[in-house]
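dumping these here so i dont lose them again. two proteins, back to back, each one seq then structure tokens. dont judge the mess
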Amino acid sequence: MKVMCVIGTRPEAIKMAPVVNAFKKCEDFEVCVLATAQHRDLLDQAFSLFDIQADYDLNIMQPGQTLPELTSRLIVGIDKILTEAKPDLVIGQGDTTTVFVTALACFYQKIPFAHLEAGLRTHDLYSPFPEEANRILAGNLACLHFAPTEVSKNNLLREAMKPEQIFVTGNTVIDALLATAQKDFPLEVDIPEDKRMVLVTSHRRENFGQPIINTCQAILELVNKYEDICVVFPVHPNPNIRNVVDEYLLNHDRIKLVSPFDYGPFVSAMKKAYIILTDSGGVQEEAPALGKPVLVLRRDTERPEAVTEGVVKLIGTEKQDIVNEASILLDNVDAYRAMAKGASPYGDGNSSERIVQIVRAYFEQAQR
């Protein structure tokens, strides 16, 4: 059976790579990779790390393209590749425009579509935007739902998805994380040994404008308040983020503004961090497994499991809230230890193998 894995961004590549490699080990499957390159450079970094090569590459990225422009280019490009490749099953991961359009293109050609990391919900259609809508739309077109947790499974059941099509697999990001964390990747950023490192990432559309300004102002207040911290901020290249961060945080000796890390060095950065401030969904999954407290620069999350576990906390993007919550962890050892438990509800590192077994059973059932 021919399985096609479609990948558009670096997070998709990180989470899809273990699945691609698991299928490659099987003699009864042929696996091919379609890269849409929704994020070109960051995607190529992840492909290189995990030794993944694209069989088809749309190279869809263009500076400043709108969501309608991206969507229209994707649907035409993906449709042509599906016609040429004729896969028996297509797998898409997560919540990007790539995964939604892939599901739609498969629907138009009546090709079975499987959704990896299915069932995540904030229950607010515009937060995160457009990811929440992408998840819902892709899920309604999927024949297989690989839900990372029971919470995700229950979200799908409430939306009347067929129970026999939903499988709790864990999240493949833990497969990728555990394999990567065994290696030591150089950070190539100078962190004094006597400083506690605060790792910051921010890139989501809903944090453009005043939210990212608030975040930068909070970072400045924190470094002025705590002389023993050093902030490392891999700055997303989007000018809505880059321009603001440069305006507020450039040229401070304890704020290191760097280009986005490759995944290997980023895992090293998480391992070295004392606390992490982020709006990233993936970091909410990864950092708790490394024993790192995560303060989420969002007002809601589609990953509530880590919040329930007490290893992630939603703090929003108001300046004083960020300062107050970070200060608690920087001042209070007991509060810090309560969040730094090294517990992750997102998987055991064997999710990819489960997915292969489920897909094999799906084809066996279809052939009867």
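---- next one ----
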Amino acid sequence: MTTSTGSRIVVTGATGNVGTSLVRLLSEDPAVESVLGVARRIPEWAPAKTDWSGIDLASDQADLVKEFEGADTVVHLAWAFQPTHDPAATWRTNVLGAIRVFDAVASADVPTLVHASSVGAYSPGPKEHAVDESWPTHGWPDAAYCREKAYLERALDTFERDHPGVRVVRMRPAFLFKRESASEQRRIFGGRFLPGPLARPELLPFLPDIPGLRVQALHTDDAAKAYRLALHSDVRGAFNLAGEPPVDAELLGEMLDARPVRLPRTAARSAIAAAWGLHLLPASPHLFDAVLRLPLMDCTRARTELGWRPEHTATEVLEEFLQGMQQGAGERTEPMRGRKVG
């Protein structure tokens, strides 16, 4: 593993869940000379060695090449989860915005591009054993999130072919949580009027046990450490990132002291679809379908080639996240602002 010194790092989506963890980590890194955080709204937060640039990747005509010139690495994290009822809007930000970033990286002669892919890019796979990075990345076509992540995997395939001199790293993390992301994620998936204090174990006498609902979780800070390791190495390609153990109704029941109760997929999906159709729930039934089909990921490559190991178990991550929901935790950026409700 080779380490560079005095590096200049550009981070898009720097005010979001992963961005805030990564910028904080880089601001404390003696091998990093400066960080440029790119975000739609410039925050009051001012970590050391960090400057901000206000750019909307969906519509802003700002010169990304100028922003990226002189950078050693561009880390592309920017992503819009909503509006789920308008997939064309998320496509403009997530896909067309990302392609703008990729093109600017090439034009500015940036030597390294680190892209935030996801477990959501993977094709349906097993829940009984884990798959490595060679598993197909065609996503679940009915879910905009998975469709967009999978499309960008193909865009990067073409980018690597056309720009072999750029080192490209694709991070494929599991579901990412931290205490400070609780308010943002409650708004994104549960709706801004869902009260955070309702996330109390004593209010959950039983849990729905839905066939196929077995996923992986990871602390956002642990994911940020993997990104940092990739910046200071010469690795290429994709890396799975996930914590242990896998999360299912049995684990959640033990954690919350609640009894799992079997619930058919069709019943759960119908309830989600009804709430989403009435604009009461931001999370779409299409994403629910995808989650039931996501494979479990094997993280051997990240351990052996990056020397990465998560410091938090999945149980610890979820306990911290639930506490954050109850307390209305957040960060000093607009996407991550903390609120208990509203």
